[in-house]
Description:
- This protein is an all-alpha fold and 173 residues long.
- It has one domain (2-172).
- It has helices at residues 2-38, 46-67, 83-110, 126-155, 159-172.
- The radius of gyration is 21 Å and the shape is elongated.
Amino acid sequence: MRIISTIVTRFTQFNKWLAYASLIAMMIIVGICAITRGFGTPIIGDIELVQMTMVSLIVGALAFAEKEKAHIEIGIIVDHFPMRVQYFLDLVSALLKGTFAFLVAYVFINKMNFVEASVLLRVPFFYFKILLIIGFVGWGLESIRQTVESVHLLTGKKETEMVQETDRKAEAL
Length: 173
């Protein structure tokens, strides 16, 4: 369990740094385009470039937001339920998020088109589709981790008990 958790954590960290790099690239592009526009020589295609970096920023942040539980949630009704019901609803929510994320990644893999490009600059879209696949797989992996945590909360096991049980099963093999 710890090995899988470590892999998911590293994948999430990779996605986080991908989002940071996209943010820095977007700031540089916007800054350069604003300066050149101020001098009367605007860069053609600046909007396309910013839109593409925005896509990579968003998908890069999906897994990290899932790990930090920073996605928007409305708890006005759920917070009044008993804790076991809340854990169960968290479990269902994590399963649905994971299913959605892996389904989107699967569709992007199957619909990959290496010829399609942007209209103005002719930047190939498949680079960004690969980033979308990486981002949604990361989100799905974090949802799986959250599903496992919800199952353990539902069964009443503490994290140390989970690790000990996993170690015992690994030693038995």
